Amino acid sequence: MQQSRKLTKEERKELDQLIHKGQSTGPEVRRALAVLLLNDQVEIRTVKTVTKYERRQIFEIRKNYLEHGISSIEDKRQGKPKELLTRKQRDEIIETLQKQTPRQANPLYGSDHWTTAILGDHIKRSYGVQYKSKTSYCLVFRQAKFTYHKPSRVYHERDENEVGQWKTSTKPRLQHYWEDPDTVVLAEDEMILTTQTTVQKIWLPQGEYPRIEVSNQSRQRRNIYGFLNLKKGAQHAFKTLKQNMVVTRGVLEKIRAIYPTQKIALLWDSAGWHKGSAAREFIEQDGGIEVIHFPRYAPEENPQEHIWKEGRSHVSHNRFIEDIDEATDDFIHYLNTTKFPYSLLGFSALS
Fold this sequence. Notes:
Elements: H1 9-20, H2 26-39, H3 44-51, H4 55-68, H5 87-99, H6 102-105, H7 116-127, H8 134-143, H9 160-179, E1 183-194, E2 221-229, E3 234-240, H10 245-258, E4 263-268, H11 272-275, H12 277-286, E5 289-293, H13 303-316, H14 324-336
Parallel strand pairs: 1-4, 4-5
Antiparallel strand pairs: 1-2, 2-3
Helix pairs in contact: 1-2, 2-3, 2-4, 10-12, 13-14
């Protein structure tokens, strides 16, 4: 079998630039990563986990790139919206999006967040122009450097004053830890992965409909403890059968083995297994772990919470989980081999 040639220095640079270009889409980045990882002879299982492509697709992506260049990696652009708006009008719309909420632009909207429907109505009211599809409005949002987000949930019991006080008191301590080269700053949380299939929306050619196989067997589950090293963006994730104070102590022992001599600033929530006697005794006996509890009902303050969402998106969504241990191992492998430069109170691996 003829072996594919290695990438040239210029091709590697070209792909690397696409990955780090702010305007690149997720699929573009994943295709570029597939080519680079395959070129570096990374294990195919790892490439599949990172890119979410199947083996056949990965090799096809590399083949197309070697034959046709960067155009095979880049999305087929839709181009600018149909020129129903003048350039001046489009610039005015973009300025409105960037500087005003819908409510500020027109009190009739009564919303603080833009949607394609509100944008379409605003353009029609302002300029008498109406596009035929949502795609044109999405492209206007893209030109305004907007991204599409699903609103996050907020606990009813959340106390904004408590959260504000926590930020005020914690930031100086975090600054102190950050400036100390002998202190590791870890944000911790747990999650449960089950054999229940979870789904998320995907883009498909018109007329194609996705079908994801689901299990009708009794649900199995595994627990994952995750620690984010905020200074390095590195993740330490561990699979467990339970979440309790004894298991928590065992996981803390593994963390101490990773950082045998450093001081550890550990930020986590007030779960019972964090405050249980077994975990508390280990922390007291260790003498080098300082604990900071996140405010109540404010999970979004914990960077580790966001890592769970990213991991689910890359590994477990839209997947039939037949073997819970294999799926959990794949999940943990993705976490432990990926950099996560999330920030906490302005501090991150990039700062």
